[in-house]
Design goal:
By secondary structure, the protein is α/β, with parallel strands linked by helices. Helices cover 33% and strands 23% of the residues. The chain folds into two domains: 284 residues, Zn peptidases (Aminopeptidase, 3-Layer(aba) Sandwich), CATH 3.40.630; 123 residues, 2-Layer Sandwich (Alpha-Beta Plaits). Strand 4 and strand 5 form a beta hairpin. The protein binds zinc ion (ZN). InterPro entries: ArgE/DapE, Bact_exopeptidase_dim_dom, Peptidase_M20, Peptidase_M20_dimer, Peptidase_M20A.
Length: 426
């Protein structure tokens, strides 16, 4: 048997193990926020990977956002060095899952299996991908014990809340540097035949309009911050949205609707605060003296952040010039620059070749509308040879009755094992 046939047979033989591992991971309820059970899942992965010959480190990102003695941010980095020098291939998965939400028909932490699908919160995003990378690495080690280089597998905290207690922290500590790691695969659920090269950029900001409080029966004695914000919203509709729709990207973003600049108005608050849920009285009659919106602007690799900010600033200045009494403030909250790995990068061409071998079709190249941990590996780690590739359907992420298909995981494990063989087999 040739190497490809031996690796695929080895993965097929481990199908039940892959199912069991995925179910075990789903049963550890690593909800974030607040960031539960990180230590538990790291200890579980430690036992598994130590038994497979990996050297492991459990690392707490002390002092990062959300870290506390009650909810410590634990990460695991496992490394298995080969018999000869060579490249290091690193599989990075986040271990956290988002809130369960309403609408489930199965136990979200039961790991139930029905008709070839494993259900649970985090099944596709991304415990299925984590399990797939582990089984792929173990199968490769069984077939190619004398490989060169190293394999690393990490399970990291907080991706769903920005990754600051996970990949960002590890990148700052040097775990993702081009000297240490040469190829990174993040098994996010992008589908088994798609390679995700990167993501669009993000800018979050808060805009506040100012007014003057007065009695609600005599609004003419005050100045309504909500009416001023109305003027901002009108200008966003009239001017900004058509402008954003006109900006198209060469990035292969999926879904198609995200192939342009977009902006979501995340929240609006103004005037009297929301009453407590059990409050039964009436609001006080006041003119709103402040109104705030939070905007979530997603931008393209063809745009730059300064220009994105200048569009909004220019729009607000125009309103100020035309509208009596209009004053405002704008505050930056967060930004991430877009990133896109080149199609000629070694990890991209290798995974594309493995997809062709396993699935007998060409790989699709995509870019994610939202960011994920690649941002930290790129910006802090300065490691460009990085993609997201893993089993599962992205649309199911964060939904009720989230699931991952067993056949998809098996196929993806074959792609990952072949990728290891291409990059590391001697
Ligand atoms: Zn994810």
């Amino acid at each position: 048997m040739d190497l490809t046939a031996r690796l695929t047979a080895e993965i097929d033989a481990r199908r039940d193990d892959l199912i069991a591992l995925t179910r075990d991971l789903i049963r550890i309820p690593t909800l974030n926020p607040p960031g539960k059970c990180y230590r538990d899942i790291c200890e579980f992965l430690d036992a598994r990977l130590s038994a497979s010959g990996f050297t492991t480190e459990l690392l707490r990102a002390t002092g990062t956002p959300g870290d506390s003695d009650r909810y410590p941010r634990w990460n695991i980095v496992a490394r298995r060095a080969g018999a000869a020098p060579g490249d290091c291939v690193h599989f990075n998965s986040h271990t956290d899952v988002v809130a369960v939400g309403e609408g489930w028909t199965v136990d979200p932490f039961g790991g139930e299996i029905q008709q070839g699908r494993i259900y649970g919160r985090g099944a596709c995003d991304m415990k299925g991908g984590l399990a797939t990378s582990i089984v792929a690495a173990e199968a490769f080690l069984a077939v190619c014990p004398d490989f060169g280089g190293a394999i690393e597998i990490s399970g990291t905290a907080d991706e769903e809340t920005g990754g600051y207690g996970g990949v960002a922290w590890l990148s700052e500590k040097g775990y993702f540097s081009p000297e240490k790691v040469q190829h990174v695969i993040i098994p996010e659920p992008l589908n088994k035949d798609r390679i995700c090269l990167g993501h669009r950029g993000v800018w979050w900001a808060e805009i506040e309009t100012h007014g003057r409080i007065a009695h609600g029966s005599m609004p003419f004695l005050g100045d309504s911050a909500i009416r001023h914000m109305g003027a901002v919203l009108e200008e966003i509709e009239r001017y900004l949205y058509p402008l954003l729709a006109s900006k198209r990207t060469e990035m292969p973003v999926v879904p198609e609707g995200a192939r342009q600049s977009t902006m979501n108005i995340n929240s609006i608050h103004g005037g009297a605060p929301e009453p407590e849920a059990d409050f039964t009285g009436f609001p006080a009659a006041c003119v709103a003296d402040r109104c705030r919106i939070v905007i979530d602007r997603r931008f393209l690799i063809e745009e730059d952040l300064a220009e994105v900010k200048a569009e909004i600033a220019g729009m607000l200045e125009r309103i100020r010039a035309e509208r009596p009494g209009f004053t405002y403030e704008i505050r930056d909250l967060w930004d991430v620059t877009p990133t896109m790995t080149e199609r000629e990068a070694p990890v991209v061409t290798t995974v594309a070749g493995a997809i062709e071998t396993v699935l007998a079709r060409q790989a699709d190249y995509v870019v994610s509308p939202g960011t994920y941990d690649q941002k930290h590996i790129d910006r802090i780690g300065r490691l460009k040879n990085c993609i997201a590739y893993g089993p599962g359907i992205l649309d199911l992420a964060h939904q009720p009755d989230e699931w991952v298909g067993v056949d998809d995981m098996v196929d993806s494990a074959k792609v990952m094992a072949l990728t290891l063989a291409e990059l590391l087999a001697t």
